Amino acid sequence: MIFHRSWLSAAVLALAVSALPSTTSSATPRSSAAGWSIQRGADALRDAGVTGVSVRLETPQETTTARSGVGDLASNRPVPKGGYLRLGSTTKTFVATVVLQLVSEKLLSLDQTVEQLLPGTVSGAGNDGRTITVRDLLQHTSGLYDYIYDVFPEPSAQTYYANRWHAYRPEQLIAKAMRHEPAFPAGTRWAYSNTNYVLAGMIIERVTGHSWEQQVHDRILRPLDLLRTETPGTWPFLPKPHTANYQQFTPDGPMVDTTIPYRPFDSGADGSMTGTARDLNRFFTALTTGRLLGPAELAAMLTTVPVPQDSGHPAGTRDGLGLFFTPLSCGRGYFGHGGSGFGYVIRTAVTTDGRRTITVSSHSRSADPNTAVRQEEALRKLIDHALCRSS
Fold first, then answer.
1. How far apart are CA 248 and CA 345, in angstroms?
2. Span 162-189, pLDDT tens digits
3. Which residues of 223-235 are buried (b: 16+ CB within 10 A; e: fewer)?
4. Which contiguous run of DSSP H or E holds residue 365?
5. In 3D, which of 302, 306, 315, 356 has the Cα closest to residue 93?
6. Cβ distance 172 to 263 under 8 Å?
7. 349 bridge partner residues
C-alpha cells in the first residue's frame, strides 16, 4: 500500500532513535567502496530515526548488503539477514505483469473497458465503467476514489487495534469506492488509487478462471524460482526471520508495534504480498530485461505519463503500467515501485539497463512531518548514490 494522505504523506516516516546500533552483512569486504556507501546510507536512515533498516544492492560484479538499527525495540536484536518483508504496493507490479501477459495471449486488451470485463461493477455516483480502460487501471488514470480512505478514516492506534483483524472481499471494497464521485474523467489526469488494482485482480480472475494469486505463482514466482515470495491474502503473520514494524500515529505519541498488518487493506491485489529483498531484486531485473514480457508488452509497461509534483514522488517521476520511472542525479534513471503500510516502507529500483538493482526496507514510521521529510531525503539519497555508481 502506498499512502496518499496528509497525515502519512511521506514515503518514509520514523521514530527518532539515533542511538540505535548498526550492523553490516556484505558479500564483499568491508573495505569495498560499494559496501561502505550502502552502509553509510543505511546508517543515515537509522540516524534519522528509523528503528530498523535493510539494504540489498546487486550488480553483475557483486552483491552488497547492509543492515542498521535493531530488529525490534524490546530485545534490541540485530536486523536479521535476508528477513521476510511486507511488499505492500510492490504487489501491483506483479499484478500488472500478469495482466500484460494476458494481453500478449490475446485474452484481454489494454483498451477494453471495465464494463466489458466486469459488467455492472463500476457504476453509481458518476462512476462509469464504460469509460475506464484496463490501461487506466494499471496507470492510475481512472479517476476512481481510493477505498482506503473509508477503511481507515481516523489516524489513531485505537482505530488500528479495533479494526486490524477485519478483512473485506474485493467486491466490498469496490462498493465502498463506488459511493464516491470520481476525481476526474478517466484518462485525463493521474491520481494514485488502490481501487484500480483491486479491479485488476478481479479482471485476472474473470479472464482466467483462477485467482490473481494463483496466476502470480504460476506465471512469475515458479518460473523465476522465487521461493520466499508469497501471496498470503489475509494471513497476518510474517515468516521468520523478520524485523518488527512500528507506527507512530500522532506526533510525539508512542510507537505501536504494527508487525500484524491492518487487514482492511493490504489483503488483496493492491498490496498483500510478502517476500525478501533477494526475490524482489530478481523479479525486477527479470521484468525490465524482458524475461517475463514480450517486447510489445514491455514497451507498453514502460510507456509513462507525468506524475504531479504534489503527489509525494520525486520531481520528474513518471508512471507506466505498474512501474514508475524516476530520474537520477547522474542524468540516468530507474524503474521501480514502492510499498508501505503501518510501520514499514519498502522500495525496489533497477537501472534502465537492468544492471544495478536495489531494495531498501525501512521498519518504522512516525506522524511527525519534519522527521518524515528527513527520512525520505535519506532514502532517496541512498538509492540515488547506489544506482549512480559506475558498474
1. 14
2. 999 999 999 999 999 999 999 999 999 9
3. ebebebbbbbeee
4. strand 364-365
5. 302
6. no
7. 336, 358
| Residue 1 counted as domain residue | no
Residue 60: Cβ within 10 Å count: 8
Beta strands 52-58 and 127-128 are unpaired
> What are the DSSP calls for 241-282, one per residue?
SB---EEE-STT--EEE--S--TTSSSSTTT--EE-HHHHHH
Which grid cell is 350? 533497477
pLDDT band at 12 (very low <50, low <70, confident <90, very high): very low
Indicate whether 129 belongs to any domain.
Answer: yes
CATH of the domain at 384: 3.40.710.10
Q: pTM (2 decimals)?
A: 0.92
pLDDT band at residue 7 under the 50/70/90 scheme: very low
DSSP type of residue 7: G
**Considering the domain boundaries, does residue 273 fall inside one?**
yes
Count of the separate structural domains present in the chain: 1
Range of the domain at 44: 6-388
C-alpha closest to that of 211 among 228, 194, 226, 233: 233
Compute the Cα dihedral for 207, 208, 212, 215 and give only its sign: negative
| Encoded amino acid at 86, one letter | R
Q: pLDDT by residue (tens digit) across 227-274?
A: 999 999 888 899 999 999 999 999 989 999 999 999 898 789 999 999
Decide if 172 is inside a domain.
yes
Q: Is 176 helix (H, G, I), strand (E, B) or coil?
A: helix
